[in-house]
Amino acid sequence: MRQDDVCNDVKMIPLRDENPTRTFPFVTLAIIAANILVFIYEFNLGSRLEDAIMHFAVIPYDVTHRIFDARVIFTLFSSLFFHGGIFHILGNMLYLWVFGNNIEDRLGHLRFVFFYFACGIFATIGHILFAVNSKTPLIGASGAISGVLGAYLILFPRARVLVLVPIFLFWRIIRISAKWFLLFWIALQFFNVTNSRVFMDAANDGGVAWFAHIGGFFAGIFLLWVLTPAQKKRSAH
Q1: Which of 11, 57, 61, 77 is most exposed by smallest CB count within 10 Å?
Q2: E-strand spans in the chain?
């Protein structure tokens, strides 16, 4: 199973941003709630979990060979709600909460729904391009969340983010610009994907879908340009 984990291998953990919103983030909270409910469903499946993962996850081979199958198309959406463990879902939902509410606030509720799922689909395609014949299931919300991060970088580069970072043997909370946090994050994805072992194992079992992160991140930037009038693209920070 390949997990699409936005928090995996990140050396800084965001706690919150100092970037108030004007509207209540109904969609962001609904997505988080839906992910939690699906995870509870997974937790209660017991021995049937593996079968459920194979049914709801994206299988790259199926997408490239049976793209017009309704069930295969459905997995492009259903896979975004399944997670491989407690740390997988906690990390993804933390990132979505910290950065998603501001993107929803800027785009509006309905456009944010489209934006989120479109980023998730583009992220999945990014992974499939490098794992065309893989039969390893892909699950996780971080492809869509990576798109949120890309949009946040463009809209709010100067917003301040409180992050937890390891300093020697201890963890410290520091305040940094969102620009530096998000640039560090995407640079780390490229570092991991260009590591020879990770690159050669892109279609093999296990690991993190780095290509999905990169695809989702740049899809978020592109979709922001498509969905937002030019005068609204500038940051208010």
Answers
A1: 11
A2: 2-3, 13-18, 138-139, 160-167, 170-177
| Distance set, CA 161 to CA 16, 26, 96, 158, 201 (Å) | 6, 22, 14, 9, 34
Q: Compute the distance between CA of residue 210 and CA of residue 200 in angstroms, rounded to an integer.
A: 12
Which residues on neighbouring strands pair with residue 161, listed in sequence order? 17, 176
Looking at the domain 2-232, which fold is it? Rhomboid-like fold (1.20.1540)
Q: Positive or negative CA dihedral for 98, 99, 104, 106?
A: positive
* Residue 148 to residue 115: CA distance in whole angstroms: 8
Query: How is residue 133 written in tokens?
Result: 């014949």
Q: How far apart are CA 36 and CA 89, in angstroms?
A: 8
3-state DSSP percent of the chain in helix, strand and coil, to 5:
60, 10, 25
- The pLDDT tens digits along the chain (237 residues) read 555 556 655 578 999 999 999 999 999 999 999 999 999 999 999 899 999 999 999 999 999 999 889 999 999 999 999 998 999 999 999 999 999 999 999 999 999 999 999 999 999 999 999 888 999 999 999 999 999 999 999 999 999 999 999 887 788 999 999 999 999 999 999 988 877 454 545 444 456 888 999 999 999 999 999 998 654 555 455
State the helix-helix crossing angle for 210-227 and 109-128, rounded to 10 degrees: 140
12 φ, ψ to 5°? -130, 130
Give the start-to-end residue ranges of the domains of the chain.
2-232
